[in-house]
Design brief:
- It is a single chain.
- By secondary structure, this protein is mostly helical.
- Helix content is about 60%, strand content about 5%.
- It has 41 helices and ten strands.
- Helix 30 crosses helix 32.
- The longest helix has about 30 residues.
- The relative contact order is 0.05.
- GO terms for molecular function: [glutamate-ammonia-ligase] adenylyltransferase activity; ATP binding; ligase activity.
- This is Glutamate-ammonia ligase adenylyltransferase.
Length: about 950
């Protein structure tokens, strides 16, 4: 059986063997004329030429004019275009106008026949048309620039600059940018030049030369001569076209988009692509526009922007019911533009966060939107099928007379002609068209104009509340657009507030959130598109006024909720680290990387809190989640700091440095407000200094690198801080260097460290840095703790430490789960003593208590009670730190906050919680007192 490759080379059959459909002649006499011009045609090829020539006056003329070339082209259609392009590319510049028009005829003829016969897919047809457009623009531009250079009008340019157009680039916009040109498309271009290639005094002369070249290029492409035309060119997509020249500097364009760029221009740049001239400069320019096109946060306001654009198109072009005669396949109801807007708007919403969405093609866009969870598979399959069908009908409408139209014929004879060109029965074609248009409209309309919220019964005491009455004066409702969106949301919000356990408390909490919100359009748009977020917001603000205030200042954290996997199981430290490293690798600027890390950390921090709030994680798990997040932040950010530091001072001398997590981070038990206890250990490995432009001695290098890392983590930037850092647990505390060499650390811990420092070392854990050094530090820790001091010494020191803490901090407040006798800190110190005396140094508090029982200085029952008390205190601690920043007072939390804390602690209310806390901690204090000797006075 012959394969497809073999069939392509059988003369007269290569094209026919791939034919899947054929037109029929609407005017048989004209079809006969086309056949007479191609006596070599036979079989399906003859039927194709007869049907095409007998239906499309435009294609009939091309067949008669290019019959000889067509004969050879159909022998191997896959090779015909590359050969045509190569011939055109090699042609003389002074003959470009004629050569381009001849090539246009041949490309149009071959693409038209391949489309009508089903030999090429839609993407192959539009790709061929677009590749020819790219080459045509390049040849016309080079000829125009060459003329300016040879006349000496482009300052400093030589013949060598013709290939890159002397620093000028042409951006293909719209369908050309996406390789989606339609059959009779004009081409939308933006022409720019790189002003940095010219001295200031030469700027105006260079700009004049580029303007002349642009006009000449446009004329070469668009002027109608005896040979026809190549492409109608539209240069009006450039910034402010009414007052700017046809070619402007990149710097001027960048300033325009930064300050005045509009929503439709953002959408246009999704498909922008350098197609001719200095392509590298064009790519750099598009990279500078990335923040303008792709917003950092989920941009649900883009939905309204797109809806407004659609309404403007409707007003201009009409958008009534689908009656097929005269219906606009592009701009009409259910047309191509609705699919494009549906796709592009979703890309704009999330493309700033997910670079995978930054694709130019419509079908490609739908595919990636499904892959990333934004569009259901079934919707993508239907819209893709309808898009391709719509585009094919659009092509056939244009093939009839080479008209740049998207409207179905208005008269019966012309509709019959279209059906003939499609090779279909008219009634069946009309039925299929109407079905597709209606289904596209149904699939896309709900996204842009969702049904208004149903009417909700809201009690008068809520709806007429003084709090609600003052909302219009809040900053978030200053703009008319915000007011318009919020007006649609308000009944839904009030209705859900009315259903809260204590509506007035919930209303007051929501009021606090709204009052602190600096702007509302983005967030209100997000709520309108994702009404389930209103429930989440009310849940949060009803439980935690403090968290609500945080949300009002950082509402972008809601972006993560609709990412598709917000409520999925926690991924763990390794996956988080890999994700953040990938995000930071996309950015080149140091400050931007740090801001991206902060934004990412805020979203995951928010996720950890919501999981705890919603009961998706238990207090023990949530503590590990916060610790995973801190570890991932350190592991991903510190290499970025090292890279930046090395630019000036060279690579780290020796084996590098590791960061050791102490305290709660080392034990993997953090809460929402935890700072990080860290120490830095480095190993110069005999290397005395770095090797950079400004080398530093090893000790100074690592000290300054550590300071840079602390700054990176703690400096308040646009996105806030990452973490507060505490390094007082390093050798010699605040008096010692911020970074300690491995040798010094070993010596200090072996010869000088106090018992309390060895107690602290039981929870130490390397959280970032090179693996070989991390392994050595962990091995050193194990060695240091393998031979513990005598029990009497450790327990005596512990008793003294407890007395000093009590003298310094008192017994703690009634509701303080951390400070005080028998509370978290007290139990942790006891567990650390158990861990130290075991010689095995487990990090977890419960394991340390179990070791104390095994060693015999605590009974198992006592160890179990201390562990149970610790779990109770921790549950209260992690819950309290999520919903209140200051001292805990249940009387000020409200019903939601109290219910949250009592759920975490397994109690029935604040009174029972207080009684249980008091009883369990009192007994815990007695157990610890009995296990330790009297403190030294």
């Amino acid at each position: 059986m012959r394969n497809a490759a073999a069939l392509r080379h059988i003369g007269g059959m290569s094209f026919a063997s791939r034919t899947t459909r054929l037109p029929r002649p609407f005017e048989p006499d004209l079809g006969a004329e086309a056949l007479a011009a191609t006596p070599w045609a036979e079989g399906d090829v003859a039927t194709l030429i007869e049907g095409t020539g007998g239906t499309s006056p435009y294609l009939q003329g091309l067949i008669r004019k290019e019959a000889d070339w067509l004969h050879a082209a159909l022998d191997d259609p896959d090779a015909a275009l590359p050969a045509l392009f190569a011939e055109l590319d090699a042609g003389a510049p002074d003959e470009v106008d004629v050569a381009l028009r001849q090539a246009k005829r041949r490309v149009a003829l071959l693409a038209g026949l391949s489309d009508l016969a089903g030999v090429w897919t839609l993407e192959e047809v539009t790709g061929a048309l677009t590749r020819f457009a790219d080459l045509a623009v390049q040849k016309a531009l080079q000829a125009a620039i060459a003329r300016e250079i040879r006349r000496g009008k482009l300052p400093g340019a030589t013949e060598d600059d013709i290939a890159t157009a002397g620093g000028m680039v042409v951006l293909a916009m719209g369908k050309m940018g996406a390789f989606e040109l339609n059959y009779s498309s004009d081409i939308d271009l933006i022409c720019l030049f790189d002003e940095t290639r010219f001295d200031r005094d030469d700027f105006h002369e260079a700009r004049s030369a580029f303007v002349r070249a642009t006009r000449r290029m446009s004329g070469s492409l668009g002027d109608l001569t005896g040979e026809g035309y190549v492409f109608r060119t539209d240069l009006r997509l450039r910034p402010d076209p009414a007052v700017t020249p046809v070619c402007i500097s990149m710097e001027a364009a960048e300033r325009y988009y930064e300050s005045l760029g509009r929503a439709w221009e953002r959408a246009a740049y999704i498909k922008a692509r350098p197609c001719a001239g200095d392509v590298e400069a064009g790519e750099r320019f598009l990279e500078t526009l990335r923040p303008f096109v792709w917003r950092r946060h989920l941009d649900f306001a883009a939905i309204q922007d797109a809806h407004d654009m659609r309404l403007r198109y409707r007003d201009k072009h009409g958008h009534g019911a689908i009656t097929l005669p005269g219906h606009d396949m592009k701009l009409g109801r259910g047309g191509i533009r609705e699919i494009e807007f549906f796709t592009q708007t979703r890309q704009i919403i999330a493309g700033g966060r997910d670079p995978e969405l930054r694709v130019r093609g419509t079908v490609d866009g739908l595919r990636v939107l499904t892959r990333t969870g934004w569009v259901p598979q079934g919707v993508t399959e239907k819209l893709t099928e309808h898009y391709r069908a719509h585009r094919e009908i659009e092509h056939r409408v244009q093939m009839l007379r080479d008209a740049q139209t998207h409207q179905l014929p208005s008269s019966d004879p012309e509709f019959d002609r279209l059906a003939a060109l499609c090779g279909r029965d008219r009634a069946e074609l009309e039925q299929d068209l109407k079905r597709r248009l209606e289904e596209v409209h149904e699939l896309t309309e709900g996204f842009f104009a969702p049904d208004a919220p149903c009417e909700t019964d809201v009690p008068d005491e809520i709806e007429r509340s003084e709090l609600v009455a003052r909302w219009p004066n809040y900053p978030a409702l200053r703009s008319g657009r915000a007011v318009e969106i919020f007006k649609r949301l308000k009944p839904e919000i009030l209705g859900r507030l009315a259903k809260a356990a204590k509506p007035q408390e919930a209303l007051a909490a929501f009021d606090g959130f709204l009052a602190g919100l600096p702007a509302g359009v983005q967030l209100f748009s997000l709520f309108e598109a994702n009404p389930q977020l209103i429930d989440l917001l009310i849940d949060i603000v009803s439980t935690s006024p403090d968290l609500a205030r945080h949300l009002s200042r950082n509402s972008s954290v809601f972006d993560a909720v609709i990412g598709g996997d917000f409520f999925s199981p926690w991924p763990g430290a390794a996956a988080l680290t890999a994700e953040l490293k990938e995000i930071l690798a996309r950015e080149g600027d140091y400050e931007t990387r740090l801001d991206m890390a902060r934004r990412w950390q805020k979203e995951w921090h928010f996720r950890a809190g919501v999981h705890l709030l919603r009961g998706l994680s238990e207090p023990e798990e949530a503590g590990e989640h916060y610790a995973d997040l801190a570890e991932a932040s350190l592991a991903a950010v510190l290499p970025v700091v090292q890279e930046e530091f090395a630019r000036k001072h060279g690579s780290a001398p020796g084996r590098g440095a590791v960061v050791v997590g102490m305290g709660s981070l080392g034990a993997r038990r953090l809460h929402a407000l935890s700072d990080l206890d860290l120490i830095s250990i480095y190993d110069p490995d005999g290397v005395e200094a770095s090797d950079g432009r400004r080398p530093l001695p090893a000790r100074q290098y690592y000290a300054r690198l550590t300071q840079a890392a602390i700054t990176a983590m703690t400096a308040p930037m646009a996105e806030g801080k990452l973490y507060e850092i505490d390094m007082r647990l390093r050798p010699s505390g605040n008096q010692g260097p911020v970074a300690t060499s491995l040798a010094s650390f070993r010596s200090y811990q072996s010869e000088q460290a106090w018992v309390w420092e060895h107690l602290a070392l039981t929870r130490a854990r390397v959280v970032a840095g090179p693996a070989p050094l991390a392994e050595d530090v962990e091995a050193l820790r194990a060695t240091l703790l393998a031979s513990p001091p005598p029990r009497d010494k450790v327990l005596g020191e512990l008793a003294t430490m407890r007395a000093r803490i009590a003298a310094a901090k008192g017994q703690g407040a009634v509701w303080d789960p951390k400070i005080g006798r028998g509370r978290m800190q007290d139990i942790e110190l006891t567990a650390q003593a158990g861990a130290l005396l075991s010689g095995q140094a487990p990090r977890r508090t419960t394991r340390g208590l179990a070791m104390a029982a095994r060693e015999g200085w605590l009974s198992k029952a006592d160890a179990d009670h201390l562990a149970a008390t610790y779990r109770l205190c921790w549950s209260l601690q992690i819950g309290a730190r999520l919903i209140a920043e200051g001292a805990l007072d249940p009387t000020e939390l409200g019903a939601g906050g109290c219910a949250f804390l009592t759920r975490l602690t397994g109690t029935d209310g604040p009174d029972e919680l207080r009684e249980k806390l008091s009883e369990m901690t009192a007994r815990a204090a007695d157990i610890i007192d009995a296990a330790l000797p009297p403190p030294e006075t």
